UniProtKB/TrEMBL annotation:
It comes from Diabrotica balteata. This is Thioredoxin domain-containing protein. The keyword Kinase does not apply. Keywords: Signal. CDD domains: PDI_a_P5. It comes from the Eukaryota. Transmembrane segments: none annotated. GO terms for molecular function: protein-disulfide reductase activity. InterPro entries: Thioredoxin-like_sf, Thioredoxin_CS, Thioredoxin_domain. One of its GO terms (cellular component) is endoplasmic reticulum lumen. One of its GO terms (biological process) is response to endoplasmic reticulum stress. Residues 1-24 form the signal peptide. Residues 10-138, 152-264 form the Thioredoxin domain. PANTHER family: PROTEIN DISULFIDE-ISOMERASE A6.
């Protein structure tokens, strides 16, 4: 019995000794710096030094065999380059960031810290040191030629807004516009892979949703507030709705489709407003991409049931196109003569519809039967940037007459108490 227990005890002691060795592969080699997710970005990515980094697993025999030569390389490179090691078995997420598929894997972080070079040379200290010196030489040449070391993502500055702890609330949290926000770390490989798709999606959706980026290695309050656990993390912020976690794919088509579907689901339906004053037009359309203005027949020519049928068509279309952030207005025929004159209304009768792009000083006029299908096709072409556009010739905003809003009833319409709003 004693022999049996002695054997078990010996086996346990052996296992414990092996575990102790495995957990401390480089503990006795002070020139090899142990890297973790907590210090990797600061020591490696943000530093000016060239780094040689081994991703290892303590149980890996090849990793154990490499220890003497790797430690020797660290010693001979002291003061010239940094040498570190990542326990990839313990820090799996950090290893996944750099697409580590086997052990040991050595990467050299040189001129472009965001795209480290995988070392594929021999396993001797001399060969490892030569590779480090080659990377140092390339970095020096780049600096002499005026090329800067890249340590941040190359996000599109025109369509992707840099978010900080100071501007986040004003730009995003309390905004009336929807936002897609990327929480990232510059050293994160998945973030780097996402970068071109994020930029492309921002360009495609720039009239629908704003895109922002928040560097979690520089700022921290928002990553804590929104409990960011890994990179990249993307959240959609819609006014009066809790932030929505992005769970789609990581290419531009997936991002555009996901955003479009969420916006259609969560954004409130646009209002279809009658033009009764200039303030209505400005309030509703000032920050919109297009103004969709319909001119409906006089109430004497098209009674309430007729008018409501047109309004129902327009309301339905406003919902179907709400992702485009257009404003939707209507007016009775001849109630706003100055607007009709500028938009050249009258030749084809009523009802009619005009898509006005006031920023580009142009408009497109719908021609045809005023049906939902025809109007949908027309607006789809407008959304795609197609169709004939007529330039707006006047330089100032046309006068808007103050009129009483339609009360929904059939009645004789008089032209009483009209006045021009200044």
């Amino acid at each position: 019995m004693k022999t049996k227990y002695s054997a078990i005890l010996l086996q346990l002691i052996t296992i414990l000794l092996e575990l102790n060795f495995l957990q401390a592969l480089y503990s006795d080699h002070k020139k090899v710096i142990e890297l973790t997710p907590n210090n990797f970005e600061k020591l490696v990515v943000k530093s000016d030094e060239v780094w040689v980094v081994e991703f290892y697993a303590p149980w890996c025999g090849y990793c154990q065999d490499l220890v003497p030569e790797y430690s020797k390389a660290a010693y001979v490179l002291r003061g010239v380059a940094k040498v570190g090691a990542v326990n990839a078995d313990q820090h799996k997420e950090l290893a996944a960031t750099y697409t580590i598929r086997g052990f040991p894997t050595v990467k050299i972080f040189g001129a472009d810290k965001l795209k480290p070079e995988e070392y594929k040379g021999g396993k001797t200290a001399k060969e490892i040191a030569k590779a480090a010196l080659k990377s140092i030489k390339e970095k020096v040449i780049n600096l002499l030629e005026g090329k800067k070391q890249q340590t941040t993502l190359n996000l599109n500055k025109e369509h992707v807004i840099t978010l900080t702890d100071k501007n986040f609330n004003n730009l995003v949290k309390y905004s009336d516009n929807p936002w897609m926000v990327l929480f990232y770390a510059p050293w994160c490989g998945h973030c780097q892979n996402l970068e071109p798709h994020w930029n492309a999606a921002a360009r495609q959706l720039n009239k629908i949703v704003k895109f922002g980026s928040y560097d979690c290695t520089v700022y921290s309050s928002k990553s804590k507030e929104y409990r960011i656990q890994g990179y990249p993390t993307v959240k959609l912020f819609i006014p009066k709705v809790s932030p929505i976690d992005y769970d789609g794919g990581r290419n531009v088509a997936d991002i555009v489709l996901w955003v479009s579907q969420k916006i259609e689901t969560y954004l409130p339906n646009p209002e279809l407003l009658e033009i009764i004053s200039k303030s209505v037009v400005i309030r509703e359309c000032e920050e919109k991409n297009l103004a969709i203005i319909s001119f409906l027949p006089d109430i004497l020519d098209c009674r309430s049931s007729c008018r409501n049928s047109y309004l129902d068509i327009l309301k339905d279309l406003s919902v179907r196109f709400k992702i485009n952030k257009w404003c939707w207005l209507w007016s009775e025929a001849n109630a706003q003569p100055q607007i009709e004159r500028v938009l050249q209304i009258g030749g084809s009768g009523y009802p009619t519809l005009v898509a006005v792009d006031y920023n580009n000083r142009s408009f497109a006029t719908f021609v045809g039967a005023f049906t939902q299908g025809n109007l949908y096709d027309f607006l789809s072409n407008i959304r795609a940037g197609n169709g004939h556009k007529t330039p707006i010739l006047v330089k100032t905003f046309p006068a808007v007459f103050v009129v009483d809003p339609w009360d929904g009833n059939d009645k004789d319409v008089s032209a009483s108490n009209e006045k021009v709003e200044l």
